Amino acid sequence: MGLVPLDRRQITEAALALLDEVGLADLSTRRLAARLGVSSPTLYWHVKDKAQLLDMLAEAICEDAFEIDETQDWRGQLAQGLHQFRTLLLEHRDAATLLRDRLPGPNRLAHIETTCGILLDAGFTPEDTAGIARLLTAHVLASVETPARPDPEFQHRLDGFPAVKALGPAFARTTADDLFALGTEVILDGLAVRLK
User: Fold this and answer.
1) pLDDT at residue number 2
2) Based on the domain organization, do 95 and 144 belong to the same domain?
3) How does pLDDT run along the chain (196 residues), one tens digit per residue?
4) What single DSSP character describes residue 38?
5) In a domain, 127, yes or no
6) pTM: predicted TM-score of the whole model, two decimal places
7) Domain identity same for 17 and 114
8) H-run or E-run covering 124
9) Whose CA is closest to 46, among 33, 60, 59?
10) Where are the alpha helices (DSSP H) in the chain?
11) In this structure, is residue 106 part of a structural domain?
12) Which domain holds residue 134?
């Protein structure tokens, strides 16, 4: 039987499909080789180990560049970038966990470059810009993890915690999208005050 021709794009697309199917914990080069219909040694000609595979996936997830409307003020530009980054993460299972664990490659560095440029142009100091960029990334990564919905049994634990008990319905209604929107607004409000 002849060798099955493989290219990086084919491997990456199969790996992303596998990630969506089995999740990060069960992703392996062995499973990827099976999905591609090749032996593990054949795959190793293209991907030397799981670490390289994870780096390829992280880069693929961040492949699309941010499209920022530069006619907006810095606040609008940041909000647009945050929404686009979140959209990229929501397209693939465990994407936030993956990006948290990998060093940025060129695609993700381009996103960071865009964010830092917006902040510096707005007048933030280099020290603030470095911290704010990390804060914004952490906000988006956290926002793609759906918050746990309170279990009906949970109400029984709230005796003696009147504020939490009164807020039970509000907690139950709050979605990950709501938390992202609220967090983005609060962070941007705070940055506007800091910039003054």
Assistant:
1) 44
2) yes
3) 345 578 889 999 999 999 999 999 999 999 999 999 888 888 888 888 999 999 999 999 999 989 999 999 999 999 999 999 999 999 999 999 999 999 999 999 999 999 999 999 999 999 999 999 999 999 999 998 765 565 667 777 888 899 988 888 888 888 889 999 999 999 999 999 999 8
4) S
5) yes
6) 0.86
7) no
8) none
9) 33
10) 8-22, 29-36, 40-44, 50-61, 74-90, 95-101, 106-122, 126-143, 162-166, 168-173, 176-195
11) yes
12) 62-195
Measured between its terminal Cα atoms, the distance across the chain in Å is 69
Token pair 């920022």 is found at 68
Q: Is residue 27 domain-shared with residue 102, that is, in the same domain?
A: no
Does residue 42 sit in the same domain as residue 67?
Answer: no
Same domain, 29 and 67: no
- Residues 66, 146, single domain; the answer is yes
pLDDT of residue 150: 59
Same domain for 77 and 43, yes or no, is no
Structure tokens at 162: 């009147």
The structural domain count of the chain equals 2
Reduced to 3 states, what is the DSSP secondary structure of residue 68? coil
Opening angle at CA 142, ends 106 and 105, nearest 5: 10
Q: In whole angstroms, how far apart are CA 194 and each of 83, 93, 122, 129, 190?
A: 22, 35, 11, 12, 6
Contact between 130 and 82 under an 8 Å Cβ cutoff? The reply is: no
